[in-house]
Amino acid sequence: MPTVAPLDLEGHVVGVAFLKGVPFFAEAIGAIHRLDLGHKTTEVHEGLLSLVVDEANDTLLTGGEDGKVMRTAADGTTALVAEAPRKWIAQVAAGPQGAVGYAYGKTTHVKLADGTTKEFAEQRTVEGLAFAPKGLRVAAARYNGVSLHWVGTSGQPIDLEWKGAHTGVTFSPDGRFLVTTMQENALHGWKLDAKPGAEARHMRMTGYPAKVKSFSWSAKGKWLASSGAPAAIVWPFQGKDGPMGKAPLELGTRADIMVTSVCCHPAEDIVAIGYQDGMILGARFADSKEVLLRRPGKGAITAMAWNKDGRQLAFGSAEGDCGVVDIAG
């Protein structure tokens, strides 16, 4: 059984991350905690809504109810990236070339490394934001689909339409696929054809008993793990048409106990699976072998993150029950 270093916080954990080997835990109230030669706390927002890791420079980007986009470094120091008074910054994204994306209402914003900000009007409220892995291109999820913008040009966006509310968005690591979470119990995907004028092909991933609130790509982008069922649902993306016509893997099945968070290992085809009762399992794609990483605790697992060498897993729950699992322990 791996060893667990616990951290007991007061409230809902929005996100966790490792920066330069230091585990960070972000609470919904706006405080960011780190375990760096002791427990240290930085008050960053008045209400924190979203968090992503900017891997290019090992910092956190966060958006809050205070209308601020903040950058937090590994030593806990913070800097203001952007501000929109009286707005809620519910979506942030880290892009290539130092770009930072954020959204509120019906507008997507991209702040470039030179300080200039591009704005893109959307048809509906932005519910999810992600940058493509190559090229300065941003996707905004909204009601009835996704808008794709090339940040460096002023042309019309590409609209990927599919009826319903799209609540989150992610590109595959190779940029060939775009997948959204939906308000209904489903994922929806598009195969992004590089040929000019070609229409993106749809991919429907349905059958979930609950909403999908967590997804994670495997290290080489061949699999997409997701929550929303009593098992981690892992879709195959190896072929040219992604998961179409193929059944997903179902890993870590537990009767009537829902998976609430998934996080793929940075090097191996393994996924950490967090459940509504606070338990965490590790499962291998090749043979479905499972290992217990953490026994049940307080609150559903809301966030997980591996360190860069994949030997430690940080986690947080809806009740502030956090910690770091040492796999080697």
TrEMBL record:
Residue span, Anaphase-promoting complex subunit 4-like WD40 domain: 266-327
Matching InterPro entries: Apc4-like_WD40_dom (IPR024977), Quinoprotein_ADH-like_sf (IPR011047), WD40/YVTN_repeat-like_dom_sf (IPR015943), WD40_rpt (IPR001680)
Keyword Transferase attached: no
Keywords assigned by UniProt, alphabetized: Repeat, WD repeat
SMART domains the UniProt entry points to: WD40 (SM00320)
Family annotation (Pfam families): ANAPC4_WD40
Name of the featured protein: WD40 repeat domain-containing protein
Taxonomic source organism: Ensifer adhaerens
Organism ancestry: Bacteria, Pseudomonadati, Pseudomonadota, Alphaproteobacteria, Hyphomicrobiales
